[in-house]
Amino acid sequence: MAAPPDDMLWARGLHYAYDGSPALQGVSIGVKEGEVVALTGPRGSGKTTLLRCLSGQLLPEQGEVWFNSSPVHTLARAARERLRLRRFGWIDSSPRLVPELTAWENAALPLLLHGSGYRSARGTARAWLERLDVGDCAGKRPAALHQAQRQRVAVARALVHSPDVVFADEPTAPLHQGDRAQVLRALSAAARSHGITVLLATHDFALDQSARTADATGAALADRIVTLTDGRRARTPTTGGAAGPSAGPEGSAACSLSV
Ligand SMILES: Nc1ncnc2c1ncn2[C@@H]1O[C@H](COP(=O)(O)OP(=O)(O)OP(=O)(O)O)[C@@H](O)[C@H]1O
């Protein structure tokens, strides 16, 4: 089966289990170019597993993943790694930076791995750090930075090579309340200004009060919310939160980004 031509990323009937314990049970999703999609659901609902299948880190046991009308699920490991390196960016819940490298060197890693020259990689990485309000940290090593600064460097690293898709797995989890909305806005604004598609996993803010502000912001910055429950797409809205009643599995979130 071919993917719909207007979906940049498309998956059908994904199943994945860890040691026989199901994490995804037939998830299908389509994402258009430039869309910002918030993936919500309670802890353990399969958000990370879905992101990892869509980004080619995991091979689904059943189902198909297509990127730009080409199959990802049939690619050999080396080809999937090349695809991830060139076309995708990944932001984890904790900023895994290389401690020996400065902030700009960390941000520039995808470019350097692609074979870009040192000087040009430095210029591009510094520009992204400026855009993310951590330009003055460019020469510092991760240990000298606050957690929010480190996470911004990780965001810069995910965007620096102008990927087609950025997968962000609860990128604000380690941050204080005040930093969360800022990092999400910075990510979202940068992605929108460069036409980068974003899949952003967030906890179900209706169920997790501590994450409410960040996830409400993440959802409000998204074009659309997709909700998972027990490894399946939820059929009804699970929240009356900031995304509002329109934010069902296929519903549109308010897109109120103005940064
Ligand atoms: N490496 C692993 N080994 C075994 N089980 C796993 C592993 N990773 C995830 N799981 C299980 O798979 C299910 C889905 O987990 P997943 O991390 O995808 O959900 P999630 O919605 O991202 O959760 P969270 O919000 O807590 O990160 C859960 O039951 C989880 O315990």
From TrEMBL:
GO terms for molecular function: ATP binding. Residues 9-255 form the ABC transporter domain. Keywords: ATP-binding, Nucleotide-binding. Residues 236-259 have a biased composition (Low complexity). It comes from the Bacteria. Residues 230-259 are annotated as: Disordered. Signal peptide: none annotated. InterPro entries: AAA+_ATPase, ABC_transporter-like_ATP-bd, ABC_transpr_LolD-like, P-loop_NTPase. It holds the Pfam family ABC_tran. Belongs to the ABC transporter superfamily. PANTHER family: IMPORT ATP-BINDING PROTEIN, LIPOPROTEIN-RELEASING SYSTEM ATP-BINDING PROTEIN LOLD. This is ATP-binding cassette domain-containing protein. It comes from Streptomyces oryzae.
